[in-house]
Amino acid sequence: MAEAITWGEARPNRQPATVPRTGATSEPAGVRWLLIGTAAAFLAVFLFLPLAVVFSTALEKGAFAYFKTFADPDTLSAIRLTLLAAGISVPLNVAFGIAAAWVIGKFEFFGKSLLITLIDLPFSVSPVVAGLVFVLLFGLQGLFGPWLIAHGVRIIFAIPGIVLVTIFVTFPFVARELLPTIQAQGNDEEEAALTLGANGWKTFWRVTLPNVKWALLYGVILCNARAMGEFGAVSVVSGHIRGLTDTMPLHIEFLYNDYQFVPAFAVASLLALLALVTLVAKSIVEWRTQS
After folding, report:
1. Alpha carbons 133 and 135: distance in angstroms, whole number
2. Is the overall model pTM greater than 0.70, yes or no?
C-alpha cells in the first residue's frame, strides 16, 4: 500500500506538462502574406495613388506652369488666408485645450460631464451644419446680424467668420489629446511641488507642462492639419469671394470647376506637402512618446 505523504516531506519533482501556446504570428505564411498584401494594396489605392495623381497632374505641363500658379494673386491670397486662419485658431485652441484639460483632469465640479460633451460637439456635428449655425447667428438676417451691420462689424462672408468656424471645428483636438495624459499623471508631483513652496503658476510651468509636452505637441499638429484643410464650414461662411475669402481648399474647388486643372492640382500638391509634413511630425511625436 502506498504510504501517505505527510506535510514537510519532499515531493518528487514533476515537470509540468508542456502546453503548446499559439503565438500571434503562428499563422501560416500564406495568411500572413495575404494580410500584408491587403494592407499594402489598400495604402497604394487610397493613399499613394491619389498622391501620385495630384503631383503628376500638377507637373504635367512642366515646372514653369507649376510655379506660375503660385504667382497668381488669388492663389497667394488663398494661401495667406489659410495660414492666417490656422495661425489664429491654433494658439487659441492651445490655450483653451490646456485650460479645459487641466480643469477636467484635476478637479471635480458640477457640470463636468456637460463640459466634456461640449468639447466633443464638433466631432458629432457636420461642418456644414456648424457653418450654417454661424450664418444664423451673425448673418444679415441672423440673430445678431442687424446689430453687427448697424455698428459696421462684418463677420459672415469675411475673414472673422472664417476664423470663427475654424476655431469651432478644431477646438477639441488639443483638449482631447491632453486630457488622458493629465488624468494619468495624477496629482502627486504637483502636491509635492506645492509642499516645497512652489506657487501654482510655477508648478504648472515646471511640473505639469513638461509631463504633457508631447501630448500637447501632438494635439497642436492635429489641430493645425484640420485648420488648414477645413472645407465644409468655411465654404458656408466665406461667400467664395476670390482674393478675399477663399482659403486653399475653396480655391482648389474654384480652379477645378473652372477647368484649370494644372493650377488646381498645383495648389492641391501644396496642401498634400503640408499634410505629409504633418504626418512626419506626428510620427516623430508618437515615437518620442513611446521611447
Report:
1. 5
2. yes
C-alpha cell at 42: 489598400
- Residues 171 and 120: their CA atoms lie apart, in Å, by 9
Q: Indicate if the alpha-carbon torsion angle 92, 98, 102, 104 is positive or negative.
A: positive
DSSP category for residue 21:
-
pLDDT along the chain (291 residues), means of 10: 45 52 64 88 86 91 92 94 95 93 86 90 91 92 89 92 95 91 80 76 80 87 91 92 92 93 93 85 76 64
Q: How far apart are CA 159 and CA 69, in angstroms?
A: 23
Whole-angstrom Cα distance, residue 70 to residue 266? 8
Q: Residue 209 is which amino acid?
A: L
- Residue 228 CA, chain-centre distance (Å), reads 10
Residue ranges of alpha helices (H) inside the chain are: 29-43, 49-58, 63-69, 73-106, 112-119, 121-124, 127-138, 145-150, 159-170, 172-185, 188-195, 200-203, 209-211, 213-229, 232-238, 248-257, 261-290
Whose CA is closest to 57, among 289, 252, 288, 239? Answer: 252
42-44-50 Cα angle (round to 5): 115
Nearest-angstrom CA–CA distance, 282 and 200: 31
